[in-house]
Design brief:
Shape of chain A: globular
Oligomer: heterodimer
Radius of gyration of chain A: 16 Å
Largest sheet of chain B: 4 strands, antiparallel
Helix content of chain A: 25-40%
Structural class of chain B: alpha+beta
Structural class of chain A: alpha+beta
Strand order of the largest sheet of chain B: 1-3-4-2
Number of helices of chain A: 3
Helix content of chain B: 40-55%
Number of domains of chain A: 1
Mean pLDDT of chain A: 78
Strand content of chain B: 5-15%
Radius of gyration of chain B: 25 Å
Low-confidence stretches of chain B: 1-28, 30-36, 38-43, 100-139
Largest interface: A-B, 58 and 49 residues
Number of strands of chain B: 4
C-alpha cells in the first residue's frame, strides 16, 4: 500500500478512541490537524445527508480528498466512495476509489476551486486562528468560544 | 453563481462573493464515477484559460493549507524518539544561556537540507514548524558536557 494511500486511510478511518481534541495546536499531529480541518470542510458542498459520513480535506499540497460513507437503502450494506483530486500543472486529476482517472472540468472544477478557497478561509480562521489575508492572529474572546 | 468565472486575484479579494448556494454545491464534485455524455454536452464549458485559473486556485489553497499544517505540526523524523526531540529542543534553547554557540553547529535549514548532507554528518533531523533543525553529534556532545552528563 502506498504511503499516500496509508495516510489517507488512517485519516479517514481514524482512531476510535480519539475524540475532538482540546489540545493546543502546537501539540497536535498532522492527522489531528487534518481531522479538525475536515470538520469544517465536510459541509462545503451542502448539508451531509442523514446516515452519511463525509470528509473533505486537503491531504497535502498536491491532494484534496473527498470521502463519503453511507448505507445503501436497497441492500442495507455500507458503501463508501473515496475521490482523490490530484493537483497537476495542467489540471486536476480525479481518481475515484483508486481507479477511473479523469481530469476535472467545467462546473465541477469551478465548484471545487471555490470550495477549496472557502476551505482555506475557514480553516485559517477557525483552526489556525489568524486572518488569511493579513496573517494577524485572531483574538478569541470568551464569548466567541 | 452558475456561469460566473473568477480569477485568482478576485477569489483572494472577495472570497465570500463566490459562496455557492447549498443546492448548487451538491452538484459537484460528482459522486458517481461517470457522468453521462449527453449531460456533459449540456454543461457550460470552461475555456482552457479559465480551467487553468481554477487549477491555480486549488493549487494555491492546497499549498497554503500544507504550509499552515507544517507550521503547527511537530513531527519527528524516523529514528528520533519524542523524548530525544524534546531534549534536543530544550538543549538548543538553553545553549546560548550556557555560553555555547548555537551556530554553526545548530543550523536551521530548509526541509530538503537532509538530502544535501551525507547521513554520516547528520546526527538527527528534527522538523519543527516546517523546518529541519540540524543537530550534529559534536554539538550534542558539547551540550551534554555542559549539562554535566
Amino acid at each position: 500500500m502506498s504511503r499516500l494511500l496509508k495516510k489517507m486511510v488512517a485519516l479517514i478511518v481514524g482512531n476510535p478512541r480519539s475524540g475532538r481534541t482540546t489540545q493546543s495546536l502546537h501539540k497536535l499531529t498532522e492527522r489531528q490537524l487534518i481531522q479538525l480541518e475536515s470538520e469544517l470542510g465536510r459541509d462545503l458542498f451542502g448539508s451531509v445527508p442523514k446516515g452519511h459520513k463525509r470528509e473533505f480535506f486537503c491531504l497535502d499540497e498536491h491532494t484534496w480528498v473527498w470521502h463519503e460513507e453511507w448505507i445503501d437503502s436497497a441492500t442495507k450494506k455500507r458503501k463508501s466512495s473515496t475521490t482523490r483530486y490530484e493537483i497537476h500543472d495542467n489540471g486536476i486529476l480525479k481518481s475515484q476509489n483508486g481507479a477511473s482517472y479523469s481530469f476535472v472540468d467545467d462546473e465541477e472544477l469551478r465548484n471545487l476551486a471555490i470550495a477549496t478557497r472557502i476551505y482555506y478561509e475557514r480553516v485559517v480562521r477557525n483552526v489556525y486562528r489568524h486572518d488569511p489575508y493579513t496573517g494577524q492572529p485572531l483574538i478569541v474572546t470568551p464569548q466567541a468560544r | 453563481m452558475a456561469g460566473n468565472t473568477i480569477s485568482n486575484s478576485e477569489a483572494r479579494q472577495h472570497p465570500t462573493d463566490f459562496l455557492i448556494p447549498s443546492e448548487e454545491r451538491v452538484v459537484a464534485p460528482y459522486l458517481e464515477p461517470e457522468t453521462p455524455e449527453e449531460e456533459r454536452n449540456h454543461e457550460l464549458h470552461m475555456s482552457p484559460e479559465q480551467a487553468q485559473e481554477m487549477t491555480e486556485v486549488m493549487m494555491e489553497a492546497a499549498r497554503a493549507i500544507a504550509f499552515e499544517q507544517a507550521q503547527h505540526t511537530v513531527e519527528v523524523t524516523p529514528g528520533v524518539s519524542p523524548e530525544l526531540m524534546a531534549e534536543l529542543q530544550m538543549t538548543m534553547a538553553e545553549a546560548p544561556a550556557r555560553g555555547i554557540a548555537a551556530e554553526p553547529e545548530v543550523a536551521a535549514a530548509p526541509r530538503y537540507a537532509e538530502l544535501l548532507l551525507p547521513p554520516s554528518e547528520l546526527y538527527e533531523g528534527v522538523r519543527v514548524k516546517g523546518e529541519y533543525l540540524m543537530v550534529y553529534r559534536r554539538n550534542l556532545q558539547l551540550l551534554h558536557e555542559a549539562q554535566g552528563k
